[in-house]
Amino acid sequence: MELAITKKQHIINTAADLFKEKGYAATSIRDLASKVGLEPSSIYSHIKSKEDLLTEICLSCATRFSNGMNEIFFQDITERKKIKALIHLHLEIAYENPASITVFNDEWKFLHEDAMAEFLESRKDYEKKFKKILTDGKKNGKFSFENEDIAFNIIIKMLSWSYVAIKKYNKESLETELTKFIIKALTEK
Amino acid sequence: MELAITKKQHIINTAADLFKEKGYAATSIRDLASKVGLEPSSIYSHIKSKEDLLTEICLSCATRFSNGMNEIFFQDITERKKIKALIHLHLEIAYENPASITVFNDEWKFLHEDAMAEFLESRKDYEKKFKKILTDGKKNGKFSFENEDIAFNIIIKMLSWSYVAIKKYNKESLETELTKFIIKALTEK
DNA sequence: TCTTTGCGAACAAATGTTCGTTTTTATGAA
DNA sequence: TTCATAAAAACGAACATTTGTTCGCAAAGA
């Protein structure tokens, strides 16, 4: 219980699996309890509320993205390399915790006030930095696109498909393929 | 009530709005009734069940895609033109019924047995034809990619972003931009 | 009149959560 | 090691709400 994983964390991970499978709203505490091997009431020895679970899942992913972005953003490398590093980051996080990242991606709208605010703020910062990289690359003549908002969102969507593709492809080949598509899409023909 | 739109259709459209906003599982018949201006029980004068609503929404979109695909697929035009026509199709459907297509995209997993089977079959057919166009284009040397499955899914994901972007961009400029990105991603650099 | 549409009350089931109590685990002195 | 004790974890029963849906009946439209 000390070396391995905390029971709370195990409950959260199981919740992520269920939220991914059935969706947040359609997953009950009883579902979760039975999958963890506890009675429903016992869950509340470890968490405050159902929404707490979602909050932990979403914000821990947000933090990972935020940290990863900051590491990349402030490096002195080309924008192309930064984009490649960001693709790598997405896949790294996805392969590490496939369920969480899917919940992070699809179920965040069920977050409540404070957690939602924190989530959105983190996302806004991520988006801002991502777009900065894109427009810098455009200024340097490395990238070619009309609208950075569209470019950003399209890339994010391509990456978010990878969360689904994890079972089918290994990390390296998926990363290679995704990188090719994204770089081609960004580059002048 | 005759020239315009049937009341059942109005209920379905309102349901689509709610399912899009709150998700299928989190939307109650009481929510729907109150938004339509009826008592909950009156809803059942028009529909069989809550899932019926989802079925109508998802399968009507599926039919539109299926018809659109067949029209394009059997034409004697280049693969590049077919892809462009498919992009156009997605945007056409999206701008016509933004709520439905979002539900179609995000909430189909709540379909039950028969409807689910029909949905999946339709989707499989669509995917098969889409991939055929891609691989034909590859054979002709027009497209360049390693894995048609990845190529297909990435394109679909880019298109699915447009369902969200509808409020921000007009159809023509969004289509132009999306087409550029997708064609570039598919074309040898 | 007959059919469609709408209503209000009620239903059984499922939901998130609380509460008091028991069981288990960790702690630290004898 | 032993035992008492405190803290943590698990339990069972119960709660108030919300859920999808049904049913008998009234109103409206054909």
Describe this structure in words.
The structure is a homodimer of 189-residue chains. In chain A, helix 1 crosses helix 4, helix 1 packs across helix 6 and helix 4 packs across helix 6. The relative contact order of chain A is 0.12. Helix content of chain A is 74%, strand content 0%. The first copy, chain A, has 9 helices and no strands. Chain A is mainly alpha-helical and 189 residues long. Chain A has a single domain, classed as Tetracycline Repressor, domain 2 (Orthogonal Bundle). Chains A and B meet through helix 8 and helix 9 of A and helix 8 and helix 9 of B.
The gyration radius over C-alpha positions of chain A equals 18 Å
Encode the helix/strand succession of chain A as letters: HHHHHHHHH
Quick one: CATH class of chain A? Mainly Alpha
In what range is the share of β-strand residues of chain A? under 5%
Number of strands of chain A: 0
Most strands sheet of chain A? none
Q: What overall form of chain A do the CA principal axes indicate?
A: elongated
Secondary structure category of chain A:
mainly alpha
Name the chain pair with the biggest interface and residue counts per chain: A-B, 33 and 33 residues
Q: Counting H and I runs of at least 4 residues, what is the number of helices of chain A? A: 9
Q: Say which CATH homologous superfamily of chain A is assigned.
A: Tetracycline Repressor, domain 2
- CATH topology descriptor of chain A: Tetracycline Repressor, domain 2
What number of domains of chain A? 1
Low-confidence sequence ranges of chain A:
none
Measured between the Cα atoms of the first and last residue of chain A, the distance is 55 Å
Let me know the average pLDDT of chain A: 95
> Mind telling me which CATH architecture of chain A this is?
Orthogonal Bundle
